[in-house]
Please model this.
Amino acid sequence: MSEMIEVKNLTKSFGELEVLKGIDKTISKGEVVVVIGPSGSGKSTFLRCLNMLEDITDGEVFLDGQKINDSKTDINSIRQKMGMVFQHFNLFPHLTILENITYAPVKLKKMTKEQADARAHELLQRVGLDDKASCYPVQLSGGQKQRVAIARSLAMDPEIMLFDEPTSALDPEMVGEVLDVMKSLAESGMTMIIVTHEMGFAREVASRVMFMDDGLVLEDGSPEQVFNNPQNERTRGFLSKIL
Amino acid sequence: MNEWWSGVVEQFTRCFIEEDRYMLLVRGIGVTISVSLLAVFIGIVIGFFIALCNLSKNKVLKTIGGIYTDVIRGTPSVTQLMIIYFVVFATVRWPKWIIAGIAFGINSGAYVAEIIRAGILSIDKGQTEAGRSLGLTAGQTMVGIIMPQAVKNIFPTLCNEFIVLIKETAIVGYVGLMDIQKAGDFIKSSTFLAFMPLIGTAIIYYVMIKLLTLGLKKIEESLRKSDIR
Model:
């Protein structure tokens, strides 16, 4: 397996507050990494540093060997290779579902309008929403919005997908449909990094689980290792509270 | 009663009909509209750039935007108009209405900037993040994602600003332009009658702004129509 993302001594501070305190991790192609941990542990910040939605305070992040937090790097072309799915979907309300998906690929000249439309329909079929192509986001349920958001990211043909608590804003009965889409995406071989509180999903789908607390990755291993035989005291404390 | 009425008619005739004085007002309407339209256009362009300066992380741009807004808001528009006309454009032989339009545009730009800035800030940060995460540049995200949404929030306040602007142009007489206000004033001094010309001036402004308000309401409604709920 080839290294896709390499993180070296990543730190992030918001003013005086140090949120990430030095993370060294390597993520290989095809891995499905689930990041768990209590609120405020720095999980989301870690994820957002990987595509520079947060400025990196110190340390280095590489994608395919290219340093992303370098002033010479074109961050926009890096981001085209990293899809991101947000907790609050962030669909564009003024565009139809189809336009939400085709806007970036057409604007960035990755595809013609016709190619993008065809690809969008294909992706919508994959997430089971092709009949909603001409709807606007307000007409969709939360679960449907998140499935569209996943399709929108996939339209850029990313090498890796980042999920920032994709089911946390959903009504409980809608969580399943989103997790199903993510599961089939994982099965198709997509490299994924997922911040979530869905432990069942982590156990079932993850190839690797990281436990973060207080700005550090304290546990990193297969789901069996992390869930059944955690080494760190704080991991045990966290798991005993939620499992 | 009859005497009173014939007095009114006589005053009206003296003020507006004799020597074709109504033409002064008609030309005045033209001047007010030209100055206002030019000022609105310049105001939007300047306002948009100053808003971007104020929102920018770049310290130099931020300072420029801050000083601009501060100076314009801190000085009377009549002073600004006179400085632009008699100082900045002192040696430039452009038509008066263009120079006045530029002066009011520069003035309006500061207020429009604040309106646009507030409109942009009213759009959820997640929209920018979603755009940028797809690989769109900051400019593409602003033009394609943020502005189309912000315009709906900006439009009503912007309309209000333009109504204020039209009334503000009533001071162009200070640089020798014969707008509606100046025309009314001119009729007043040449007929020695105050009531008719001044009330007439007020009615013309009122009707103009009423018509504009109704028109803008229609546009606003059609903007809102695309909000499918």
Remarks:
- Chain A touches chain B at residues 51, 53, 76-80, 82-84, 86, 88, 90-94, 103-104, 107-108, 136, 138-139, 149, 152-153, 156 (CB under 8 Å).
- Strands of chain A lie at 3-14, 17-28, 32-36, 58-63, 66-67, 82-85, 160-164, 191-195, 208-213, 216-221.
- Chain A has a mean pLDDT of 95.
- The longest strand of chain A covers residues 3-14.
